[in-house]
Amino acid sequence: MSKGLEKRGLALGAVLLAVLVGVLLWTLGRKDEAPGEARDTPTPDTASADGTRGGTSKPAQAPVAASQPPEDMLRPVTCELDSLVEEYRRGKGSPAYRRYVVEQLRGLLEKMPPEQLWAKVEAEQDPEVLEALSSLWVMRFNLTGDKGVLDRVLDKTGRETDPTRKAVLVRSLRASDEPSVEVLAKHGSRKDTYQEWVKDPAPEVREAVVGNLTAEAARNFGRYQGVAEQAVALAAEAGDAKTAAGLLGATSIEAARTPAVNSVRQMLKESEHPEVRAAAAKALGTVAANESEQTLRMLSERFSAEQRPEVRGAILESIARLGLTKAVPVLQKLKGVDRGMDGEIDTWLTLLASQPQTWNLLLQDKQAMERKSQGG
């Protein structure tokens, strides 16, 4: 009898414990519901007047206004172009890193609004950063063929008063896929741009002109007809000897036509600057095969008339270059004209005796001889 009572007591205790746990869980659930945010519970289905069944729910509560984000989350997102430009600016001490940044900038070019980039070009004052930006701008012409791209560069170059920044803008034209002297002649609004730049009072600008033609000619081993003829024309117009000589040495004139070759011959004969005459003499060593015979005769004649040794040395070099083994009798005839140059003539004759097949091989042999002589 006592065991039965004990069992009933245990069962009653278990029931009371379950009730307490249930009440506790219900109470906690009610506390979790914020005032005004009670869950909508459907009312029991009731029969409508038309016999259908449906239910009504509580009206939707108005949404509570979201809290404002912290102030530091409201900063504008930094423009990718701005970020890369600043990276380029900070990379002054690392050319390799700057090349990497330039590649990243090129990746933005097609998707970047043109006015955004041009605004950067207009505002930039640092010459190195300006060169990167203006070169990137010129690449837009490669993509679109829009001559307005070039016109903006020409306009800004004309307005620029700082010689260093002006030279940078001139150099930026090297970013054109085709030589800039040809591109501007076809697409530029002003055809005489290079003629103006080659006479610019700032030496930095004139050097940029020479650098452009040198770099652009090198893309085709100096055989761009337009570049070669433009180099000759600009050399004839240049106001200073250094610029003229640089232009004559900027490119081979192998691709140039007869009028341009005749202009170089004239500069060899008539220029008052030995530096220009020497450059003209070396340029004549690169004429096409159909011009070589006449040029050899002319060089031989000028050797006798010329008084400056540096010009005579340039003439001998071009004779050797044009004729190779055929130059031997020409050089032999020149011995004794200037006893001071006989040693140079003997050097060329010695080198030509090995019957080199190309000018590059002959030049390498001469340079090796000179190094050996200096070492001794």
Walk me through the topology.
Blueprint: H1 2-32, E1 46-47, E2 53-54, H2 80-90, H3 95-108, H4 114-123, H5 127-144, H6 147-159, H7 163-171, H8 180-187, H9 193-197, H10 203-218, H11 225-237, H12 241-248, H13 258-270, H14 274-284, H15 289-305, H16 309-323, H17 328-334, H18 342-352, H19 359-375
Helix pairs in contact: 2-3, 4-5, 5-6, 5-7, 6-7, 7-10, 11-12, 11-13, 12-14, 13-14, 13-15, 14-16, 15-16, 16-18, 17-18
β content, as a range?
under 5%
Principal-axes shape call: elongated
Specify the number of helices: 19
Radius of gyration: 42 Å
Relative helix content: 55-70%
Report what the structure shows.
There is one protein chain. With 376 residues, the protein is mainly α. The protein has a domain at 78-112 and 129-140. It contains 19 helices and 2 strands. The chain has helices spanning 2-32, 80-90, 95-108, 114-123, 127-144, 147-159, 163-171, 180-187, 193-197, 203-218, 225-237, 241-248, 258-270, 274-284, 289-305, 309-323, 328-334, 342-352, 359-375, and strands at residues 46-47, 53-54. Strands 1-2 form a two-stranded antiparallel sheet. Strand 1 and strand 2 form a beta hairpin. The longest helix is centred in the first third of the chain and has 31 residues, at 2-32. The protein is elongated and about 125 Å long. It starts with a helix and ends with a helix.
Short description:
Helix content is about 65%, strand content about 0%.
Name the features.
376 residues; two-stranded antiparallel sheet; 19 helices; single chain; mainly alpha
